[in-house]
Amino acid sequence: MLVDTFGRTATDLRVSLTDRCNLRCTYCMPAEGLPWLPKAELLTDDEIVRLVGVAVERLGVDEVRFTGGEPLVRPGVVDLVARVAALEPRPRISLTTNGIGLARLAPGLKAAGLDRVNVSLDTLDDAVFRKLTRRDRFADVVDGLAAAAGAGLTPVKVNSVLMRGINDAEAPHLLRWCLERGYELRFIEQMPLDAQHGWDRAEMITADEILAALEREFTLTPEGEQVRGAAPAETWLVDGGPGRVGVIASVTRPFCGACDRVRLTADGQVRTCLFAREESDLRAAVRSGAGDAELAERWRTAMLGKKRAAGIGEPDFVQPDRPMSAIGG
Ligand code: SAM
Ligand code: SF4
């Protein structure tokens, strides 16, 4: 098992398939620049399946989430899902995507074994979408969401990050829109992970602000800690249910004590936390001929470096060098 020195066990593996993306969300990437990882440094499909296999078959990982960058821009994504679904014991498989390309890929992903998707959508206003993502792809995301639901990738979850003065007034509208379509909305507090280091805590929309805005239009009933478990979203039933809304308050209500996650970057580095400043190189081990037992041992050792908490609020907090798009959100 992947146990750290604070007694937490990682069972939820986030695998970044690429650092590339077809959007340029302002809270994630700069308008231009940001060099991509060289292709030779990226894990091949076979290397990804091998490492995920070690995690699932030897280290107790039971949930695999593909992310990025934008995971759907990786050509082999459907095949990767199929190969991971063939592992024993079969892990649950999910995907975090900006939704572009999902209209085309959703049925194939479902058939390959994908269980669930999270689609990121921060606004329902085409013009705001263009401003926030710097690309004109709003309709593609909306179509992608509908295709995911149509393909049975349920529950379809929607991730939204609110930015002050840009889309923060949209919180109730986003919730109503998602409820009408059967999507489960989760707001994510903006974190200091943008490539351009522009995050400002004072500018961030907090969980309390989000909840206050929603409560002006809806009755929210907390679902309680038992539902939260190791899942970072605190959830509320909306107007008595069954619709619900979640808030991932990574900054104002961190959930590090219950963290069950570990990450593998597209270039084969194990990261024990989004905010880790150290990584462990499994790509070098794979490419130098390490056997599965050695890879598992290296991975277990990497977990011993996992910190007690991300420490975003602490005076000595330093943002990691890698941006979110290169870590895998
Ligand atoms: N491209 C895919 C997407 O956007 O869903 C997957 C990768 S993206 C890095 C994963 C999630 O992280 C998205 O929901 C995105 O909104 C969120 N995200 C990106 N930068 C963030 C930040 N600085 N703070 C909070 N969430 C962020
Ligand atoms: Fe791309 Fe996702 Fe980052 Fe937006 S949040 S720029 S969609 S990786």
TrEMBL record:
Residues involved in S-adenosyl-L-methionine binding: Y27, G69, S120, M191
Query: Gene name on record?
Result: moaA_1
State where GTP binds: R14, R65, T96, K157, R261, V262, R263
- Could you tell me which Pfam families the record lists for this protein? Mob_synth_C, Radical_SAM
- HAMAP family assigned: MoaA_B
Q: Which PANTHER family match?
A: MOLYBDENUM COFACTOR BIOSYNTHESIS PROTEIN 1, MOLYBDOPTERIN COFACTOR SYNTHESIS PROTEIN A
Indicate which residues the UniProt annotation says bind [4Fe-4S] cluster 1.
C21, C25, C28
The reactions it catalyses are: GTP + AH2 + S-adenosyl-L-methionine = (8S)-3',8-cyclo-7,8-dihydroguanosine 5'-triphosphate + 5'-deoxyadenosine + L-methionine + A + H(+)
EC assignment: the record states 4.1.99.22
Entry annotated with the keyword Iron-sulfur: yes
Q: How does it assemble?
A: Monomer and homodimer.
Concerning its family, UniProt says: Belongs to the radical SAM superfamily. MoaA family.
| Summary of the function given for this chain in its UniProt record | Catalyzes the cyclization of GTP to (8S)-3',8-cyclo-7,8-dihydroguanosine 5'-triphosphate.
Q: How, per the record, is the cofactor bound?
A: Binds 2 [4Fe-4S] clusters. Binds 1 [4Fe-4S] cluster coordinated with 3 cysteines and an exchangeable S-adenosyl-L-methionine and 1 [4Fe-4S] cluster coordinated with 3 cysteines and the GTP-derived substrate.
Q: Where in the numbering of this chain does the Radical SAM core domain appear?
A: 5-231
Q: Which cofactor does it need?
A: [4Fe-4S] cluster
| PROSITE patterns associated with the record | MOAA_NIFB_PQQE, RADICAL_SAM
From which source organism is this entry?
A: Catenulispora subtropica
Instruction: Write out the residues that bind [4Fe-4S] cluster 2.
Output: C256, C259, C273
Protein name as it appears in the record: GTP 3',8-cyclase
For this UniProt record, give its keywords in alphabetical order, as a comma-separated list. Answer: 4Fe-4S, GTP-binding, Iron, Iron-sulfur, Lyase, Metal-binding, Molybdenum cofactor biosynthesis, Nucleotide-binding, S-adenosyl-L-methionine
Does S-adenosyl-L-methionine count among this protein's keywords? yes
Which InterPro entries does this UniProt record tie to the protein?
Answer: Aldolase_TIM, Elp3/MiaA/NifB-like_rSAM, MoaA, MoaA-like, MoaA_NifB_PqqE_Fe-S-bd_CS, MoaA_twitch, MoCo_biosynth_MoaA/MoaC, rSAM
